[in-house]
Amino acid sequence: MSGRSWRTVDIVVAAAIGVAFGVVFWAWNTVWAAATPVFTFMPVAQNLIYGVWLIPAVLGGLVIRKAGAALFTELVAASVSAFLGSQWGLDAIVSGLIQGGAAEILFAVFRYRSWTLAVAVLAAVATALGAWLHDVPLYYAELGYGGSVPILIFMLVSAAIVAGVGSWYLMRALANAGALSAFPSGRAHA
């Protein structure tokens, strides 16, 4: 069996991460809506909390370390969120596809061989860029891409810190706890 082939444990763990974060997304959707008044001074700054929606793509890639893991994990999370009643409806799934695909492209650039903190941050930044490209025409059409650059900046900061650094440290914590012993990510950081 090739190291690129998915094992049953890869599928199960990627799905478990996706389902867990799908529930987190569902709750985070409520936090996002409730936090809107806090950002009335600068509505675009609300995107500082956007990074939570990008975690599964980065974490899934870091843990599974195989082609398709980032996309699969983010898509499962988005699908669970939509199924639970996301206020964005089925567009949550489209977002998951784009965000997971963006992380996948970044991991592919490194040929699925580099799993450093820097790569995690770059993957997170790629997910934010994908999210921004998707969100602007749907949710910020009046601003256009040029007018929504401040949104992008806040999304990139959130992605780098929450999804990039956060996912990398979460992967390390899981590895140190022994939860990833069946994966190269668990053996590399244990």
Describe the overall structure.
There is one protein chain. The chain has 190 residues and is mostly helical. Helix 1 packs antiparallel against helix 2 (55-64), helix 4 packs antiparallel against helix 5 (117-139) and helix 5 packs antiparallel against helix 7. It is built from eight helices and no strands.
Quick overview:
With 190 residues, this protein is mainly alpha-helical. The protein contains eight helices and no strands.
- The N- and C-terminal alpha carbons lie at a distance of 25 Å
Count of beta strands: 0
Question: Which stretches of 5+ consecutive residues score pLDDT under 50?
Answer: none
Q: Major sheet, described briefly?
A: none
Query: How much of the sequence is in beta strands?
Result: under 5%
Mean pLDDT: 94
Taking all Cα atoms into account, the compactness measure Rg is: 16 Å
SSE class: mainly alpha
Q: SSE string, helix = H, strand = E?
A: HHHHHHHH
What is the count of DSSP helices, taking H or I runs of 4+ residues?
A: 8
Helix fraction bin: over 70%
Overall morphology:
globular
